[in-house]
């Protein structure tokens, strides 16, 4: 690495790590923009054939999301293992190419539900690599004190992607017409990833090989690594077996944290437009701004939630205690979503009911993103860098399994209470409200105090 001498002052420190964070932000933006397309096509997919739609049921739509989630979950654990071996540069690029190709392919499979399920499953295989690669990259490029903030920033790309989809997909349906618009939505969003690849290959290399990184910044990145060996070699490629990782309570803590909460975020992503249409009789075009607003507010939660532990650490609180304290505070806020149906069903609120309901959902989504930023960072708090992507993959698999369960439950209840959708959503919002505190309690029981893994 071309860098100043070890005596370089702090003033000479570069900040190139934030360029890397920006690259991760944009890959996550593309990831969620591509993923979110189907939620704004649900009304079209489930519209009767006589009305120009595909004629799917709510269960058909839930199956599409569930199969995507199942493949995403199953492959994420494998992708983490692969990325720990081939490195983040090639691993993230390969993932993006796969999901972009199959995202585009969704435009060419016709109206059959099973055909979309097959293509969307392969799409999930590609998308599975984004978070294991990104979390590993943050562990390689940031000291522990900054990892939650860096994770919060790149994770906010999930909201940015959802915001873009909220405006872009309905625009495609209006501009190109329903019969061509749904195809163009898949094609244009799927193509965006190939532009990102240019910048990824241009700017990215590991810290030890990067010519734009000063010695002062390199030393700062490794200032609180687990062992002197990590600081000197940056070795993150040694093999660690899944069997050994599953023997640690820390792995299961992350597993249950993801299992209990990932599906909640996916419920908001894939069912929020449907809720607004059914609860408030909004058109598919009218849902654009409310959903755009929800995901915009969630960006604030992601970034602020990532900075909250840093504030506590600066006040002298140990890292793990600060992380868990922040997560407990954050877990309280989703309880507010229990009031959503109250606002929606009380007549005297009138047109303001939707405003109140959307505001509460904004709080819940912001809380989820704050929770997620800290949950991801518990992995790099506990495990050496060479195991981060693998553990992240295991957790993401658990989150995907939880996502499958939530999607199937949502499809079941929305079909069961088709004539009274408010009942279905009352049940679903009850699940959303309670999941975080349950997850926190399980995590705290499994890992009551900070105990980093040192024997891998």
Account of the protein in words:
The chain is an all-alpha fold. Helices cover 75% and strands 0% of the residues. Helix 3 runs antiparallel to helix 18 and helix 7 (144-155) packs antiparallel against helix 17. The longest helix is centred in the middle third of the chain and has 32 residues, at 249-280. The chain is globular, with a radius of gyration of 22 Å.
Order of helices and strands: HHHHHHHHHHHHHHHHHHH
Largest β-sheet summary: none
Distance between the amino and carboxyl termini:
27 Å
Number of helical runs? 19
- Proportion of beta-strand residues: under 5%
Q: What is the molecular shape?
A: globular
Number of strands: 0
By helix and strand content, what is the structural category?
Answer: mainly alpha
Mean pLDDT: 84
Percent of residues in helices = over 70%
Give start-end ranges of low-pLDDT stretches. 1-11, 226-237
Q: Using the CA coordinates, give the radius of gyration.
A: 22 Å
Fold topology:
Layout: H1 17-36, H2 42-45, H3 58-86, H4 88-105, H5 113-127, H6 130-141, H7 144-155, H8 157-176, H9 178-203, H10 215-221, H11 228-233, H12 242-245, H13 249-280, H14 288-314, H15 319-332, H16 340-345, H17 352-382, H18 385-416, H19 421-446
Helix pairs in contact: 1-4, 1-6, 1-7, 1-8, 1-9, 3-4, 3-5, 3-18, 4-5, 4-6, 4-9, 6-7, 6-18, 7-14, 7-17, 8-9, 8-14, 13-17, 13-18, 13-19, 14-15, 14-17, 15-17, 15-19, 18-19
